[in-house]
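Hey, can you fold this?
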Amino acid sequence: MYPEIFLPLHGEHQAHNAAVALAAVEAFFGAGADRQLDIEAIRSGFASVIIPGRLERVRSAPAVFLDAAHNPHGAAALAETLQSEFDFRRLVGVISVMGDKDVAGILGALEPAFDEIVVTHNGSPRAMETDALAGIALEIFGEDRVVVAPTLLDAVETATAMVEEAAEDGGAEGFSGTGIVITGSVVTAGAARTLFGKDPQ
């Protein structure tokens, strides 16, 4: 019905969300098979979509993404997208989760996507304490894949050093294929946006 629509978002779930949004707009305007919406308006609208904190790239070398996944379902969607749409040779997760969430479920869903993780505290009084988060992470990822950092800034710096090491080992490839994903809660994504000079929204 609307061919060749570009959506600058990652993940099959985002394509599904876009289709639902388009159906809602069609219903609102009474559009359908007999009366379509303006295709150029649709193309323009979808091409300009930005969702802060949803696999949002905030740096390129190394690649740093933010994602506000805060439950097992969101973490599974993030992990699936990272594995299906990217080809990282080393991917480090920076993770801080709220204490009232299904932390084991979130970490279990993320485990296949990350080579290592840096667990930390995002500064919120609601965040799980770093030692408790590290304990759960060690059970899921194993001790060789978990690093602890006291603050989000420390965690980002630690993760950056980890991917820089991989970049040096990669020779001519450099940072190509290395990345960092900061995730675990909306608060974590917002705090990370601030660290990277963006509005926390």
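Oh, and this one too while you're at it.
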Amino acid sequence: MTRINPGLPALLLALSACSGTGAGGPSLLPRAVETRSNAEPVRPAPVATPDAALDAQIAERSHAFDRAADAFERQAAAIGPTITRARGAREGSEAWVAGQVALGELSEARAAVESAAAGLEELAIARESARAAPYTALDTALAAANARVERITAADAALRQPF
């Protein structure tokens, strides 16, 4: 039988007295800084106050845009037969020249539409530059103008198809 060294139990007893309950070590729970969010706080959207002067400018520029767009659409309808005749004509013929002239006039009408749309966009750019709150009437007018410009662009492209 082996004998246990009498000093070993005393050594183990002495070492056990040195160990603590573990309360002296760092906590593994999340710290306060780890639980905070770094996301931007949600701020309510600013509300624009009614502005009679801006409303008048929007109405004026929208009306100018509508007049230009109506003129383009009337002109596009009027030159349809001329373009149809020019498509089948040989280059340099009278029908071809008439078609080219009609397309040039249509380009002028389209430039007027784009200029009028730019007038509305200038108002939006000025508000954005001033960091003003979004203005519903302006946004609505601009969206309507942009939709109509897209339709006009499609009509213009259709008239210019292989010419």
